[in-house]
Amino acid sequence: MLVFSANYFVFSRSPIIISILNNNLGRYDNCGGGCMTEKRIIIQELGEDGLLLPVLVNRALLANEQIKYFFTLLQTAQERADHPERTLSMLRIERETAGIESEQFDAVVLGTQRTDDQSYSVPFLDEILSRIQECLDEMIAPFTAQGNGHAQAFIDRKESLRPALHGGPEGTITSVHIGRITSGETDGNESIHNLVMDLHRALNQLQTELSKETIDGAMTYMLGVGDDVHIRAFMAGVNRTSPLRRHRCDSITRDWGRLLHTRETNCSSRMISG
Q1: Residue range 60-64: mean pLDDT, rounded
Q2: Residue 144's closest CA among 36, 35, 265?
């Protein structure tokens, strides 16, 4: 039996058969960048290539929210170190809203200290910079999967900015590097923030091109005649529990004679087909 890091519910229409594969490896937030590759392999192994791009777009949009949190975290930490008399938010709510479970980041704002006129010692700096890199990779992934010209251009811009994502010794980073990561006002120079803004615009456009219709909160792709009836019935049940979930992105597409439902909730996914 294959074992995957997600739950799969596979429904045939008559009779109804449910099979579940689950190894409880936890959320994407806790398993590093490998889960993205695992999920791609899972989808391809199941023969559901038509679902891959919508899934990647959903994950990329969530990565956009998470990278914005890390930008705000660095900016707020820098401000607190420059003005220790100020009372600033620890950004816990922002972290939770972005679907990031690591509570250690709540200590970053208070823990950041100036080491000289130009540098700061930032707790967990290496992990913050690594997370930003991972978010960029996820935001570019849909364009790579689509095989269009945007992908290489975005990759080249990301590579040109890679030096900004390397901290100094003992968890230090300069004010210039923080600006090159987080600032949208760079006097014509490239920044990671500007790259993220361009990626976000392109992702919104790609999502619009992919989705033909939103049915009761689900972005739908490649549906057949009469599928909307089944989707409305299914989403009625989904929406009854929606207040219990944050960052839920539902996608439904028809592939291999089945309706396939994908949910992305705080970077954990499951697929339902029927």
Answers
A1: 91
A2: 36
Report phi then psi at 272, rounded to 5: -125, 130
Per the structure, the count of domains in the chain is 1
76 and 95 Cβ atoms separated by less than 8 Å: no
pLDDT tens column, 177-196: 999 999 887 677 789 999 99
Lowest average pLDDT, out of 44-48, 64-68, 177-181, 249-253, goes to 44-48
| 2 is a domain residue | no
Domain residue limits at 211: 7-273
Long-range contacts of 80-89 (CB under 8 A, 24+ apart): 80/109, 80/110, 80/112, 81/112, 81/113, 81/114, 81/120, 82/114
Per-residue pLDDT reduced to its tens digit, 218-233: 767 666 677 778 878 8
C-beta neighbour count of 120 within 10 angstroms: 25
In a domain, 32, yes or no: yes
Phi-psi label, residue 171: left if phi above 0, alpha if psi -120 to 50, beta otherwise: left
Phi/psi class of residue 66: alpha, beta or left (left: φ > 0; alpha: ψ in -120 to 50)?
Answer: alpha
Does 259 or 61 have the greater pLDDT score?
Answer: 61
The residues pairing with 260 across neighbouring beta strands, listed in sequence order, are 253, 273
For residue 28, what are the contacts with CB-CB under 8 A and spacing of at least 6?
35, 36, 267, 268
- The reply to whether 1 falls in a domain is no
- What are the phi and psi torsion angles at 177 (to 5°)? -65, -40
- Position 177 in a domain: yes
